[in-house]
Queue: 3 jobs
Job 1
Amino acid sequence: MSPRDWTEDLAKDPELMDARKAAEESGGAGGGPGMGSGMGGGAGMGGVIAGDLAEEARRKYLNYALSVITARAIPDVRDGLKPVHRRIVYTMFEDLGLTHEARHRKSAKVVGDVIGKYHPHGDTAVYEAMVRLAQDFAMRMPLVDGQGNFGSIDGDSAAAYRYTEARLTRIASELLSELPKMRGEQDSAGLKWFRPTYDGTGEEPIVIPARFPQLLVNGSTGIAVGMATNIPPHNLGEVIRAAVTMIEHMPTAAELKEKDASKQEDLARGRRRAALKELLKGIKGPDFPTGGRLVATRKELAGLYEDGKGSCKLQGEWKLREEDKSTFIVITSVPYGIEKSALVEEIGEIILSKKIPALIGVQDLSTRDVHVELELSRKSGTEPELVMAYLLKNTRLQVTVKFDFTCLVPVPGSEVGRPARLGLAQILEEFLSFRLLTVRQRFEYDLRKLKERIHILEGFEIVFDALDEAIKIIRRSEGKQDAAGKLMKAFRLDEIQVDAILETKLYRLAKLEIEKIRAELAEKRAAAKKIEAILKSEEKLWAVIRGELEELAKAYPDPRRTRISDEDVTEEFTAESFIVAEDAIVLITRDGWIKRQRSINLASTRMREGDEALALVGGSTRECVVLFTNKGSAYTLRIHDVPQSTGHGTPVQQLFKFKDGERVVAAVGTDPRVMPEFGFARPELGEEYEEPYPHMLAVTKGGMALRFTLWPHRDPSTSRGRMFGKAREGDEFIAVFKVYAEDDVAALTRQGRLLVASSQEVSLLGGPGLGVILVKLDDDDELAAAAPSTVEMQVEKATGGTQKVVGKQYRPVTRGGRGVELWKRGAVKKVGLPEPAVPSLELGAAAPVERAKK
């Protein structure tokens, strides 16, 4: 279910508002609504609740789902934090005073205070969340300054919280510094800052007054119920520039006054689309803590930031280092979220399997920075760019990063936000709207404090003008309360002013001190006047926000780490690039053993006892061999990938995932010297299913036959192969061979009947199918063999004796008949076909080429 589905449900179905209320009442305690209501419901474990089971289950599950969405997994668009992160930084700032200027304290103290006061969950979850806030390879701008082992990019876990220490970073203070001024405040729009904790003994912030768009700077990842979020981190300077730009594109008065919701949405959509063009001048794209290279065009990034979702390739970076005897590729960064040790292990496995002959060693020399050295052999002459293209395509040195800008958007009058997928412009708009409310409330707080101080100073000023009289009144008074009453009556002061006067120390009556008080009064009046002017003008408020954002960018300069490029070097890589082109012969035996050698002599090559050669396929190591099985599957692999052996070879089942009872019945090669049709350009779609291209003909034991083209099976397949035909239950393929238009096919049955028919009578299928009837069989009969009519079949009878059968000696008939009877008695015991010939790989095979051209 998408975030939009939840929003529509909550808007249309009044009953679902119970879920929102339950989430609010839970105080963000995590699984409260879904966990607590499921156990009791007022009736206890033994009670009975009357109602519809489906509706009750739906309501309770929705309570749980909404709690996970709003109180665990999805961050708030305003401060960019999830509840657990917000509680951690609040505890460190408010309760423990662990600012960037304080000394580090044990992480166990922080975790204990968080779970004891605000977060009723396990200590492991809280500590892991705090550890992530401290990891500079996970956070673009870490919020926690950790001391001790807080994990590494190699995937090492952090030390236990009894060993590590922590405090907030300097930039974390920018999120929390204004929070004390918000306590007890509530905006006219209904924005509440605090709510009771889960046990009602204290208060916790609903949101903190972030001074920069933390959601974009550090990003967020989370999986909720029916939705997920994956917001990438960005560069602080770029985000602040974009936020300053967005100030000029905030909602206009006409848009806010529009009463028609659809028209208002259209106006907002057009405004944000126009703003996005300006924002992309400041934000180049995501900026990951680990650096790397993001492969994306400007158009793709614009679509990502407009829709709030998309995906891009992220690659590690590398450089070349030449030495006298060796060439080294130095990997200087790994993709975000990838463990470096796992990547090094992947590269090591590639070296051991010799998939890249030029790559002879890997060494991890990393300290704080990533430094992985790959040694290349200069003898191979392989270009380093080609090696890296292979590694990018076959290891986690390149990953596809999926983005989903789902976050919680505030709902007026509610403590719980609604999930929505936002674009870049809308995220900045929500932040700036929140920032406007925050700055206004901060100024209102400052103005109130100024007026309170001005009020006291005005009392001092009144008394100082008649200081002698005031002293006489105080000396004649019988006590503080009496003096206060007389001063209030004599100088028309209120209780607050009189109390401050009576608490004043005697040295403040000196002339110099009196002048300081008057100077302070003038200063406070000027400051109050300035704040009042700012509060009266929204334009001045925006100017203050703009200035503060620009100051933040200057205070935290941080160069960009991730490069953006629209060039994908992996597209230039092909699997043949690292295969040394040399001729080889592949032997496949009847019992399913396969091996590769430079040359094979069937008289001397080793095979298991009782086994015999089924097929010999020759070609370049860059070409493929296609194996056809009795189950109708074709398995294609490069000749280079066939294990080289001087022994019996390797079972085919080790190279592919065969089904039970599956075995190889035929094999062909794709080298143009043995399959000359592949020496020409691949035909257009559909042409390969028409004459005069050669085709493969497959025959089943049940007398069915079909033709298919070899083009779809030319390239390497997966371990599960590709289907070339289908056989009925109990039936299987017994022969697959190549035919041309003029070729005939001969089929011999177990009862000694032979049918010879033109291959053109067998239907050519565009996909795997059952085919047509080649031979009509009796109930107790089946096909024993099938081959081109030119092939000599050595038939051994069950009654004894042998007979040679050559199909071309018989007149071709129409397919679908019973064939001619070769003998009266005895069934076929075994059919022997000629021993496969060693293929000729000379370039002068002109006859087949000319035949293919025709």
Job 2
Amino acid sequence: MVKAGGGKKGSAAKSPTKTRVSLSSAELRELRSTQWFGLLAALAAVFTTGLYIRLYPAFLWGNYINEFDPYIRYYLTEFMLKMGAIKGIEWWLSGGLINGHLYINTHFWYPWGINWATTLSPGVSFTGLILYDILVKHLHLHLTLLSIAVYTPGIVNALSVLSMYYLGSRFGGRYVGLLTALMTAFSLIFLQRGEASWYADATLFQFIAPLGMALFIEALRQRNWIPYAILAAVVNGSLVWFWGSFTFVLNAYGAYAILLSIYVLYRLYKGRVIPLRVTDGISVDPVNALGTYTLTYLGFAAFLAMTPRYRLHAVLGLGALGTLAVLLAVVAIIVVMLERLGARKLVTASKYVIAAAVIFLVIVIALALSGISVLIHIPGGKYLAALFPTARSALVQSVAEHSPSTAHQLLSTTGYTLPFEVTGLTYALSTVDVAGLLLSITAVLSVYFASGEAWLTMLMFAWLPVAAYGLYLIIKFVARRGVDVIGLLTVAVVTALFAVSVIVIAQSSVPIAAAPQQIVSTTEPAIPSSDWLDALYWIQYNTPHDSVLASWWDYGYWLAIMGNRTSLADNSTVNGTQIKLIATAFTSTNVTESLELLRSVGADYVVVFLPYYPFPITVPSPMSALSIGGSSSQSMVALCALYPEYPTGGDFVKSYWMSTISGNSPEYTNTHILSAAEIISSTPTGGTATYNLYVPLANTTLYRLLFDLEAPAYSINVDQCLTQIRTTTTATPLTLPLWLFNTWPTYSQSSSSSSSAVHLVMTFQPILGQSLIPPPFVGTNTTLLNELYFTWFYGNWLTPPPGFQLVYVSRPNGWVLVYRINYSVLNSTLS
């Protein structure tokens, strides 16, 4: 036996011991200060990066308001400023009263007009109004309302980095908060409508919603929870003033309260109360958890009652689930209080309360879904479309942002964070974490709505802290196991996966955020163009002040605000009947009907939009097949071909929705109004080229306005195309540009055996030659195709329809056309 000790040869090795390091209080303070300094430095760097990304479009493209909806927010801010800040706020909250009289604005939706105070939420315009009043009128800063409208969205949305840090830190600690902030800085969830120039509701909503949820969780963590709950109620309730999707947040809180109430009642009935908790082990009183929700619900109800757009009855429609939840939460709170007062028999009866509550909820929801309003009712319009994607009307479907998300879009939004999301969600629910329950419900519900409508990915803010928490849990678990090869490999893999996710998210979101504003790039993909600005300025200075302009509803705000002329329809889409009237006027093949419909609403001008791409082509002349006197006239003609909807985004591609909104079925529209087609042509190298495009199948009023061959002569791109033809080809130039679907006559000769006369046979062929095949007509008879070819003959598109005079073509591309309407032609016969 060998004795231990002495360090002699053969002695047993000492087992390793853990060394405990003790730090003085001064050293602990210094360590904590260093940690906080590093945390704040990292957070400042993330915030600065997020701010730069969000302000970059304004730096790059200029001070333009983006998209369509922000323009009405800007208009209403200016409208209130003219009245004075206090009177402006009074006007809105009174429901549109000025000096005791209801003000109907006929500058929009002429001739019926609109009351904007009951149509839109006031939050964005209030924010701009208050900022202008403080910064300009009180602090005397040299700022314009436009500059405030441009930069405020980017700055406030950058503050979402901080509110998301607060949310993540209240849920999982400061490291979870920092990871959440990092993803927020680059996430498409925030950047798709969070950059400068987006003076709209969602931009500010995305700062307030995480802040409200963080305050809600803060109330759960505090022993003195009521002040925090009241603050959470005010912040969450203010969401009503900013975006209609407040209903999502309210009902997500409602789902949380319903599940938590049922859980609390069930545990009380079983007599085995498992304490509620939040992430770092702090216990939560059920009265606190359900009382915080009750106060939050009251905050929503108070703001709804103050908002003319909704009023208090909205809690039975848009906030239906939240209303049912507050009833159940109050019952649960009462039962908990009874249990504490020793009324055990009453508590035992809680199983009947649970059963009655569940049956009540099922009956009320079933009746609401069947159209019978008992306590609650299912909202319609876009709210119903978000809840049930199959219930979308043609008008809702016509809005691109309401289309379903693809798997690629969801991947671009979340990166490869799904494993982290599942980890965080599973752990939070398994540990009865009430904060985790709230965030998990919000995240799961947001994925459902975002899958149905692409733009609702903006609601997925709760996904980020749950995913960050999942990553934190994995690394924490590995660290507790001790440092070994498997642990290091695991940390390396999950860290790399997270880094790749951030890169994927940034790659999809940063280019979108940096894209030019829509007013200077109204196409997809975004190509900078000043056509709309040019057309709007021309309208403002060259049309009578009382002119009424007809257009598709997409451009209504621009025409009314930038063009300062009365419009018939706009992006608020509040009058489906008027939109249908415009759609019918545009898609009718009867010009008389179109003019009558436009006259019924007092339209003086029509504005249409069609982006296209001109490029030179060389084709055989119409006489090339003839052989006269033994010699053939093989000549070539060079011309500019016009590729419609390339880039896309114009009224031609939108005419599908115009047709369906007017009452035509999708099948009829695809076979009688417009169709996808392929043009297959020969290339100079002997190969073939295929062009995919839409082609018109009828001479509708809109198509005769869009494809007027006089208009391209004013396009600088067409002029450059003609210059290229003259300088680079020996073929005979044709100065008239033609659309790719246009045909022209081709002559061939035939001779009769009974006569020496030569007969000329004229047929119509596509200008690019080999074939033009609209898929619906594949396999049909040749006569039908010939009839279509004749319809597309360029001679049919040389002039606009009777009653419409082309008065302006936008510069530089010629994409926006303005027509003056002459109703006197209705006195004559129109074709």
Job 3
Amino acid sequence: MNKLRYAELITQILANSYGFWSSLKNSLLFWCLIAGLVLLICAKTKLLFRFYFWLTKLMQRYWGMPRICRQYLVPMFWRILRSNWYTVLLLVVLWILFFYIDAGSDLIISFVGYIIKDGEEWWWKLLAIYFLFFLTLLTALAIWAIPFFLFTGERVNRINLDRRSIQRFYVGCRILSIVATVPFLILANAFFFRYVNEDVANSKVIGVNGAILLFLAVFDALILNLKTVKAPMENATVLLRELVGRVFPNYYFNLLTRLLLIELLYSALVLLAVSLIDENLRDRDAYISCIIGGFMVLSGVTVFRLIFFTNGVDMKQKDIRKRVDQLTSTKTAAESKKFYYTLFWFLCIFNLTFFLLPSMTAINTMFVMLAVFAFLINYVDFCRHLAVAEKPWQKILGYLGIVIFLVAPNITPPGQFVVPLRELKTASAQNLISCERFSKGLGPVDSKRLLENAIERRIKFIESHSKAADSSNIYIVCGMGGGSRAGYFTARVLGLLDNKVDGFWSNTLLYSTVSGSSPGTYHYLKHRIAAPLEKGELSYLQHIYRQNFNSSGMFGLLLGDGFEGAFGGLINRIKALFSPSKVYTAFRDRNVRIRQEYDFALKEALAGTGNEKFLKNTFRFGVDISEPDDFQGFYLRNQDTIPIHLVNTFEVNSGRRTVLSPFVAGDTTLFSNAIQPLQDISFSNSIAKRDITYREAVNLSELFPFLSAASTIGENDRYQFVDGGYFENYGLATALDVVRYLESIQSPVLKRLKIVLIKNSLQRSKVEKSSLQLLAPLVGVINAPFTGHANQLLSDGIKKFNANMVVLEFDPDADTSKISLTRALTTKHIKALDEQAISQVIINEAAIRRLSATAAAQRRDSCGLNN
């Protein structure tokens, strides 16, 4: 008995111990105590000191720093990072853009796609590779260049105060040159890891970069230091320096010229290597991306060795003093002044060119990013040094420049990001009616403009043009959002369904679209009206969606719109001189530029005059977009012969869905809790006679996060509209509102109604890991509209309609499922989308064609089959 009690006691003690340990191991305090104990042991055994010593020795040896300056390496490294906070900030942003958003993968894929593109002249490809290096070099030079000419006498005296000050200054200059190579490292990693749009494990990135650094160190020690290799290289370097020095005696320009000549050779070798890769190789694109990544590594090493690196391991105090005297000398100040101002004004003019160009669709977004980041780093660096210059006016300019850098992105002057209202040219003064359920204060309008009447007329049109008027399907088509991917896929599927399913076009009641599917539907309608037999539809869509609509958005986000905001609308007077558009706008912000670029591409595609030449797509010679389609006017002119297009967007400050309709809802409650700007007098007292362009309507639905800005409409500056996907990404909410309206009037077409949802991605709930506590609310806000609200409405729709709701679902194993949200599709993207569109139409054709149960019974009755 006692043994049994002892056993129970021991079991209880063990259980309590395990419970105590389970609680203890989840305690933050416990692990803090463990960490403190480890640090105490390390301090007692001098492990931390040994690690610090090993780290500084490695830095000193690998960076070629003087041994006598080893103790200053780590302190000066942190000091350089603190004083150059703007450089660190922009480099972190650059890393995030490439590695933590889907668009980063698109930048790499787009560049590689251009390099392997058939039919493109080799010199354009060579120029693209060389330009990639050149802009990365400009970013590196913006980090490295020090304006010695702005050093005051007092500052020079502080530098030469004592041995420590001299050593610290010299080490700081050398460390800044190390930081200047980071842009090459970021680009190299992007080409190595981001060609495939997948998450990259940090351990993989660290491992590959560590292997590269180890290889370079071994290569430098075992190969470059051999006398048979080192001597010829030094002789060639001296010869090239002397030859270039005859033209550019300035130290900085001499180095830069030599580097550009060497890199031209590198670029040619890269292009040669690309051309030698078998076109039928399975992962050819990925290999080419790695080759370009290797090119960036080699370029970074060359820049480091030629411009930034000198082997100063054995330098003595007198050698360091001599070098610092050279850096702070009058001659260096004069040379640095020429170089610094040349770099500054070159970057200013370069970015001003972007600002003035009519279109940026032919310019790779990566080039835009690098040019803008180089300018911003150089600009803030210049302002920082001005702020500590001798003259008062220089100090004022320096502080003012830094304030502009921090404040300008948050300035939105009146008139910027505004969608203007236009006169409704096709409005009629006949059959004017008023309705109690109109928006408050809205005057009487023509009865033809009522949405309820338009739906009724469209149904009558369908019945009058249908082979089996009482029993054929009537379709409501919903388009999912997703950037250019959604636009191309939606337009392509609509064209295929029109061609495959008899009566699909003529029997479609309306479209309800969100985000990218909105301009896609507009482009489909324009081509369908111009060429009903699908003539040239594929080339038409490809010309529009091969355009790169990311560059204008990225430039406006990073620089252009802030520049406009800081200087006001006056700057746009200059910009208007360079635009082929005859329409003057107070601001030509990124929203306006993207709308105009879409219209340029649409006009060219309809006329069949589009091509992919750089100059043509940049300056848009001979393309007039001064007479765009009015949204309401477009439908009033076509008089019920085309499906009604309901465009969905989202209002930020009220959190409400917004519906842009080409017709006025007689009952504003038709769309539940929705803003309807085109019949709301808060947007204009004369809103009954006002309109917007069709392009502005669909682009209000596709205000891509960050690449587009929140827009206002008309005179109402309180409501700000963004991408419709913020609320619900399928367009089902508006479509179901229309269904409820048809139910309220007991419309007979309900028995024949089919909902067709065109999805362009899986958009399924996928939980791989939990979120950090502080990030969990933000993650929830992001996921709610895209996978929460949308899929809830989809589930409700399937329950309500059963077989009468057809969803074109993506194949999860297809390449298309890996196409990210972007406004720039490559040839590879379009090919994958075409294959997926054809596949989905074939799979769902029978379901779309199949009559609803009630319609089928009516068909049998009309044919006498039930007897």
